[in-house]
Design goal:
With 82 residues, the protein is an all-alpha fold. It has one domain (13-81). It has two helices and no strands. It has helices at 13-25, 30-81. The radius of gyration is 27 Å and the shape is rod-shaped. 0% of the residues are buried.
Length: 82
């Protein structure tokens, strides 16, 4: 990793101890664990944002189609009256 940034975090000592012990069991450093967690979290958040964006597009498309169909129906009703 060439392009890295340093990060200082404050966590309770009990959590630090617990994570350090688990890291030892998994043969991972505290740095690796935190990097994995942040990477997984950011991927999950990105997926959620994409899902929300596509859902919004879908809703807009449905609303647009509804209004377009309504116009067609109303124009057909008006032409039948003539």
């Amino acid at each position: 990793m060439k392009d890295v940034a340093s990060l200082t975090i404050r966590i309770p000592r009990t959590l630090h101890k617990k994570v350090k012990e688990i890291g030892k069991l998994e043969n991972k450093s505290l740095n690796e664990i935190i990097r994995e967690l942040l990477n997984n979290w950011s991927k999950k958040e990105e997926e959620k944002m994409l899902y929300d964006a596509f859902s919004k597009v879908y809703e807009d498309d449905v609303e647009y189609a509804f209004h377009a169909q309504k116009e067609v129906v109303l124009s057909n009703e008006n032409s039948e009256e003539v």
